[in-house]
Structures are given as C-alpha cells and as structure tokens.
Design goal:
three-stranded antiparallel beta sheet, alpha+beta, 9 strands, six-stranded antiparallel beta sheet, globular, about 20% strand, Jelly Rolls
C-alpha cells in the first residue's frame, strides 16, 4: 500500500501520463464532452460541473471507447491502482469534470457518499469498503482542495456545519483545514471518495476521473453494464482484471437475485 495515501487519503504522481497518451485521452474526452453537451444542454447551462459514463456507447464510437479501455487496462495504470487498492480493484465508473457555465457558481465541500447516505452511514463508510478517484487533468488547472486525513476521520464541527450547510454556514465557505493541490496536464491525483474535498474552478479545467471500488456487491451495483468492455476488447487489454471483477460480481449478483426470487 502507498504510505502517503494511507496517511493522508490522497497522493499525486507528477507527469504520470505520457504526452501521446494524454493527447488521445484529451481528444476522446473532448469528443464525448461535445456530444454530451448537446444532449444535456439545459443541465450544462444551468449547473453542471461534471458528466459521467464516458465508456458507454451513447456518445462515443467503438474505437473511441476502446482507447479509454486500453488506457484504463494498461499495465502501467493498473500497477498504480493495485498499489493503492490491493489485489482486486474493481472498475466502477468514469467522470469528466469541467467549469460551470455560470461563473458565479461556487464550488462546494462534500464527501461523495453524502448524496445517498445518512450521517451514521457516512461515518460507517470511513471503515470501508472503499471508492477511490484516479484523476488525470487533461490540461493545466487550479486542481482540487482536500482535507487530509478525512478519509479515516469524521468531520470537525465547523467542517460538518459547512459541508452540510448547518447553523447558517454555506458549503462554499473556506475551511482552515483545506489544502489546495494544483495539477498540471498529465499528473495523476489519487484520492478517497470518502474524504472532504471540493474542486477548484478556473482555467477551463477538464479532468478525467476513473473510479475503482473494492470488490463488494453493495458498490458494484452502481456499475453500469453499458460502460464495461466486451470480451473482444478485453482480450486486447494488458490488464483487464478490474473490468473482469466488475462483470463477475454483477453476474453473481444477478444469479443470486434470480435464485432468491
């Protein structure tokens, strides 16, 4: 396991992605983004700061999807993923983060689970199972602000008040415990979805996030089968284990559900 990640909940590998790979990622992400914006014009104009499911078939051609799969399933990338998550990381999703159209829209402190978990469940989530973001900025950007160690510890009173907008506080207010992490194109930022964080807007940011989770049914249920590669593509990947894990768990879940009903 990576010591910095274990201690702080995040780690940065500078200049991780080679220029030719970065160029392909940027071109494919841009193609997705243009198509996604047309389909989601109102949402994009009003409040969007990210999109998801880049490896699905809706916005990309098969060869464009395969270029994403080949990067995710490369030996170099998966070696880093396993160094953080252990022997059986499971592919979960992809996201694209960008600046809001409305320049007055403020960024906001959050933990990812807060949108589908109660307070008690959020506390329990700090014990695992885990979801981890692997973020690749496709151009230089201001980066992200994190509160180190909050992947393992619960909020202090002021952090909780700001994050949940309690006691008159707002989720965009500055927190003294926050640490800004500036990112350059091709860096790799790895951070726990459980930790308190917020994006920093500006510089026409475009960051690709690849999410992995521990191999447990309660997390894999969120994986969209349309975002997984078929067997032909997987045969062409250097390391398809994370995709195979997602498919196996989803298949087993479906079989167990069929048996129980």
């Amino acid at each position: 396991m990576n010591k910095d990640y274990e201690e702080n909940g995040y780690v940065v590998f500078k200049s991780f992605v080679r220029e030719n790979d970065l160029k392909k990622l940027r071109e494919t992400a841009t193609q997705f983004h243009q198509s996604w914006k047309r389909k989601n014009a109102q949402f994009y104009a009003e409040k969007a700061v990210n999109s998801a499911y880049l490896t699905a078939k809706e916005h990309l051609k098969n060869d464009e999807r395969e270029s994403f799969f080949k990067f995710i399933g490369s030996a170099k990338f998966m070696d880093v993923v396993t160094s953080i998550m252990g022997d059986r990381p499971t592919f979960m999703n992809t996201q694209l983060f960008f600046d809001p159209v409305n320049e007055s829209q403020k960024n906001y402190w959050h933990r990812d689970p807060q949108y589908h978990m109660s307070i008690d469940e959020q506390k329990q989530a700090l014990l695992g199972p885990n979801v981890v973001h692997f973020r690749i900025p496709l151009s230089d950007e201001p980066g992200i602000e994190l509160i180190p160690g909050t992947h393992r510890r619960w909020d202090k009173d002021d952090e909780l008040d700001v994050r949940l907008e309690r006691n008159g506080r707002k989720n965009h207010e500055n927190l003294s415990t926050g640490k800004a992490v500036e990112l350059d194109a091709g860096d790799l930022l790895i951070f726990s979805a459980n930790m308190i964080h917020r994006g920093i807007y500006g510089m026409d940011r475009m960051s690709l996030d690849i999410l992995f989770c521990d191999p447990v049914p309660e997390l894999v249920k969120f994986v969209d089968s349309n975002c997984l590669p078929d067997s032909d593509i997987m045969e062409r990947l250097e390391n398809a284990d994370a995709f195979k894990s997602a498919i196996e768990i989803k298949t087993n879940n479906k079989a167990m559900h069929a048996t129980s009903t």
